[in-house]
Amino acid sequence: EPFVADEYIERLAWRTPGGGSRGGEAFDPKRLLEEFVNHIQELQVMDERIQRKVEKLEQQCQKEAKEFAKKVQELQKSNQVAFQHFQELDEHISYVATKVCHLGDQLEGVNTPRQRAVEAQKLMKYFNEFLDGELKSDVFTNSEKIKEAADIIQKLHLIAQELPFDSLMDFCCYPLPFPGKYHDLECQLIQEFTGAQRRGEIYRMREVAAVLLHFKGYSHCVDVYIKQCQEGAFLRNDVFEDAAILCQRVNKQVGEVFSNPETVLAKLIQNIFEVKLQSYVKDQLEEHRKSDAEQYLKNLYDLYTRTTNLSSKLMEFNLGTDKQTFLSKLIKSIFISYLENYIEVEIGYLKSRSAMILQRYYDSKNHQKRSIGTGGIQDLKERIRQRTNLPLGPSIDTHGETFLSQEVVVNLLQETKQAFERCHRLSDPSDLPKNAFRIFSMLVDFLCTEHIDYALETGLAGIPSSDSKNANLYFLDVVHQANTIFHLFDKQFNDHLMPLISSSPKLSECLQKKKDIIEQMEVKLDMGIDTLNCMIGQMKHILAAEQKKTDFKPEDENNVLIQYTNACVKVCGYVRKQVEKIRNSMDGKNVDTVLMELGVRFHRLIYEHLQQYSYSCMGGMLAICDVAEYRKCAKDFKIALVLQLFDTLHALCNLLVVAPDNLKQVCSGEQLANLDKNILHSFVQLRVDYRSARLARHFS
After folding, report:
1. pTM above 0.90, yes or no
2. Which residues form a coiled coil (predicted)?
């Protein structure tokens, strides 16, 4: 523990008798002083003893330090001597090594020619055996030494090929047996390789393949390997899956057998494509090529897709430098004859299929398509008939049929969607936008022109004249269905056509064609909006049939029990139905535009209708109630202008009941102040008491 002087003195005082207050003892300072003096002397003696011991240890340490330094110097000198010896030894070793290398070079220079001479002597010996026609050497008679025999035969064969024919004839007068022996040994090696492959002996296969590598029959060895690999590999119905599994298995094995595995695997894949797949594709397509276009196109799309998927799987393997081009050429070699005229088959099928779908629909409706004019005299006659009510020919009675079918549309769009998918997959990238545009044109012809446009024309021709009684306005149903169908058409345009043409000049052509179709349909829809005349005509019939003169000039002024007239109830009910029908048939700004036009005409009809009657005081109150009900009906339009018109009409009706003295005040009110005075006067004239001098005087 650290030494603390205060604590040490305290403990010393505590141990001294009389040095503290323990048990009531009296404090004795003299005794404590004496103890302190004695203890100080003891400490001084101890200090002197320790100091002497420290000095002795210091002297001993200095002596040992000098001895250690001397010893280190001696070791350094020994180390320098050892280092010098090491350098000398290293130089000597280097000298010896140089001599050894020089001697080795000399020995190799002597041994290499000697080895060559020995090898040449052996070859000459074997050559003589062939000349004698008797192969006595063990290497030729022992079947286990086929590898050594193959090496000898290969060398002799090369030598024989390099020697001139005249030189060979100097040695013998008959042809040498090298070619036959070469061929026999080659066949023997291939048989050995075949047997090893069947037994699954990878090591033996690798040995034989390495020997055959220098023979002409090496390619035949590869062919045999490829042929045997495919034995039993294509037993299932899915040839593409079998091919993928086979290539996966061979890819693991071929690197262990051949020195050029990528070349062997590429040759296997080429064989599969040119033999197995091409034969399978031909069988599947030729069966339906001329008899069933639909099945032919489905099979072509399916086979091409599965082939490209197989190609994608094979891209994982090492097939050389440009495997993408290699596989693309293989696919093209299989399908080139089918893809050249694909789009013509596609367009022909789509045309016949679409025509059949439409014809089947019209046949189900027992309807024979008519040739309805779309312009010129026919259009002029239709417009004149609708706007003037002149009988320029009877309208076509569609019996409530819109001649639009969701099922037909879905079938046409589904066929076109499949055609777009096939086009994307089977078309050459350079022809893709052009082919997609042709398919789109077919869709426009059959869906937009032959179906939607025909239904609009038929609906226009079926619009009754405004003076028809109990006319059914089916054209709004046509508008509703056409609107829904065109949304589906637009969705397919964006989802399936746009990705195929988005980066080509055909994009602008398609957009323009779509714009022209929309404008053409909008023109016909605008023409059909003249059904508003029919609605107004129906309201006129209701008012004429239900409104009585006594409604606004009752015989008993004090006994009027109704809140509004029966004509008002029926007209409002009819209008609400038509407003709901218009909202369901259209969308966007078209709804507001049509409802505004209908609301303005509805207001004009009620205004003119009220001008036909004279009003008593109670009749005027009833007219105000009718107009209030009409105004409630006008709120359903949700058009500010229409509601404002009926608010003004309601204010005008107040002139029918207001007291004569208040006429000028009412006419100067907020809603009537800006109206022409003649309009106000015309309403005041409808009062039965107008001719009284007092009323005429106040109004003037």
Report:
1. no
2. 40-78
